[in-house]
């Protein structure tokens, strides 16, 4: 990546293009673009011609750089729950919409304003990396609550209640289940969440579909890159047909993601409301 950066601009898409003397502005490169966005650099690929030029004040750029630096140095729990992709996208949106009035450059304040449980993410994480890795491998990266891909080591009995860091109290969760369970005692969460089994089955099916669609999308993008690079010509015959296919496939991915999100929200609302009811019953017991 460093090869493409001069001053504050991500200049080009690849060395091959440069060698062919192809204009960077003719190509899109999502990885370079995302890198540029999250570091508030200027990206001079195709995206620039379709969107607004990215211009930030010096202060906003410095703040963004500071936040990216803090993110890189954040505790493992932060990096596990907020992947670089999510972080980059979210930071970019924030820069676009709020860069005029952006008040702070503190990572904790920023993450809190995005709705993340900052106290949990930054504290109570006395687990070392070996333990985390052991738990991930033990459960083969499968969330023990919903069966989808999981990467977050979770205290079954919340550490805030028990302070229990024993292996037997640790399990693996996806970011969604981890957040949903929050500080709920394990037995309560399991009892309430078992009724969402059909929703979780749908979520697992959608995850599988998305995985296949994304792989297909990558293949198509690879084909397009190979075609246009070989010809050193973004208008090479067949390129537009491939672009159309990529667009259609991307729409399917987006649609499938939207479906998942709806089901996740449904499950979240159900669990939260049942938990509220359970706490209420506990409070009024014996009245
Ligand atoms: Zn899960």
UniProtKB/TrEMBL annotation:
Query: Domain HNH nuclease: where?
Result: 130-179
**Domain of life (superkingdom):** Bacteria
SMART domains, alphabetized: HNHc
Kindly state which keywords UniProt assigns to this record, in alphabetical order: Coiled coil
Any coiled-coil ranges, and where? 203-259
Keyword Coiled coil in annotation: yes
Q: Which InterPro entries match?
A: HNH, HNH_nuc, NA-targeting_endonuclease
Keyword field contains Coiled coil: yes
Which GO molecular-function terms appear in the entry? endonuclease activity; nucleic acid binding; zinc ion binding
The record, for Gene3D superfamilies, names: 1.10.30.50
Under what name is this protein listed?
HNH nuclease domain-containing protein
Annotated organism of origin: Schleiferilactobacillus perolens DSM 12744
